[in-house]
């Protein structure tokens, strides 16, 4: 019973890595990039016994010749290939059990993701209320950009010159003359 629960956790980890970074992924197939991420995040790659190159070679070995992804069954075969290499002092069954324990229940990490800068210099440079000259016209009082109106002079197509004070009074004058 405990073994089936472990296999369910292994399948759950497989699915989480299979859909990582791909909005169209179904979770049934794992691509090479996500396989390498799984091996790195679950510490299968240790730098001595198992390297990134070893992981890529095993991926190529277990996948179908024309395919670019591996299924869950091929994933299990890949772990069987890596287990004796990763855990050299153990028997094949013990090594396989140990490598399953590394993967079970794990999910992709987001280490090294760029974070928003929180520096006073950045705040000062991006504060639209301190802008001067033509740049100031591109933002409203709240600091929100005006869009196209802030970048271009919008042409007034009324037929009057821009500085003319009595715009829109022509029709009134014609009526007064009659």
From TrEMBL:
One Pfam family named in its UniProt record: p25-alpha
Span list, region Disordered: 127-155
Keywords tagged on the record: Cytoplasm, Cytoskeleton, Microtubule
Basic and acidic residues: bias regions: 134-155
Cellular component per GO, a single term: microtubule
Coiled coil: none
GO biological process: microtubule bundle formation; microtubule polymerization; positive regulation of protein polymerization
Localisation per UniProt entry: Cytoplasm, Cytoskeleton
Gene Ontology molecular function terms on file: tubulin binding
Tree of life domain: Eukaryota
Entry similarity comment: Belongs to the TPPP family.
PANTHER family linked: P25 ALPHA-RELATED, TUBULIN POLYMERIZATION-PROMOTING PROTEIN FAMILY MEMBER 3
This protein's name: Tubulin polymerization-promoting protein family member 3
């Amino acid at each position: 019973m405990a073994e089936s629960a472990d296999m369910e956790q292994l399948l759950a980890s497989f699915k989480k890595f299979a859909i990582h970074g791909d909005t169209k992924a179904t979770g049934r197939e794992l691509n090479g990039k996500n396989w390498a991420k799984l091996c790195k995040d679950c510490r299968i790659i240790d730098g001595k016994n198992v390297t990134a190159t070893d992981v890529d070679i095993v991926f190529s070995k277990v996948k179908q010749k024309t395919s670019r992804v591996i299924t869950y069954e091929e994933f299990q075969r890949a772990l069987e290939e890596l287990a004796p290499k990763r855990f050299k002092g153990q028997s094949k069954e013990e090594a396989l059990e140990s490598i399953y324990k590394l993967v079970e229940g794990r999910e992709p990490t987001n280490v090294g993701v760029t974070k928003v800068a929180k520096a006073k210099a950045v705040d000062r440079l991006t504060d639209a209320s301190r802008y001067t000259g033509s740049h100031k016209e591109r933002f409203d009082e709240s600091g929100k950009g005006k869009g196209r109106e802030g970048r271009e002079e919008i042409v007034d197509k009324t037929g009057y010159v821009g500085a003319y004070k009595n715009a829109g009074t022509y029709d009134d004058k014609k009526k007064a003359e009659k």
